Amino acid sequence: MSRVLSRIDLNPFKTTCARAGAVKGSVQKLNLVAELIRGKKVDDALMQLGFSRKKAAKDMKSLLNSAIANAQNNNGFDIDKLYISEILVGKSFTLKRFHPRGRGRAAKVMKPFSNMTIFVTERGE
Question: Which domains does the chain have, with CATH numbers?
C-alpha cells in the first residue's frame, strides 16, 4: 500500500488542490468514500469512485476531476504522474428542521453539510 503524504512532505511547486464547500452529507459518510481513494493514483481513484454505490462518490468524483483539470491547465502537470496526496473533509453548516410527531410534539431533524478539499501531487517515477 502506498504511503499517504502529509502536507509537510508535499512540494508546493508540484501540488495543486480543488475545494468544494457545502456538500450535502455528513463528515462521517464523506470520510468513508475519501478513505477508498487516499494515496492512490488519480486514474485508479476515478475507477474506484465510478463503481462506488455511495451517494458521496459522485461529488467526490467531480471534485477529483476538478483537481485534475487544475493540475493540468493551471500548473502544466502530467496527468499520468498525479497521485492523491491528501483529502480533507470538514464540517460546514447544518440545517435544522422539525418533523411533527404524535401528541403535539416535534422531533429535530439535522441536515448536515460538509466541506471537501483534494490535494493532488505530481510524483516523478
Answer: 15-122 (3.90.470.10)
Q: How far apart are CA 81 and CA 43, in angstroms?
A: 10
pTM to 2 decimal places: 0.86
Can you tell me which residue has the cell 468513508? Answer: 32
List pLDDT tens digits, range 15-24. 999 999 999 9
Measured at the alpha carbon of residue 112, what is the angle toward residues 64 and 17, in degrees to the nearest 5?
A: 20
Count CA atoms within 13 Å of residue 5 on its CB side: 21
Phi and psi at 124, nearest 5°, equal -80, 135
As a whole number of angstroms, the longest Cα–Cα distance in the chain is 67
Assess contact for 70 and 17: CB atoms under 8 A: yes
98's grid cell:
422539525
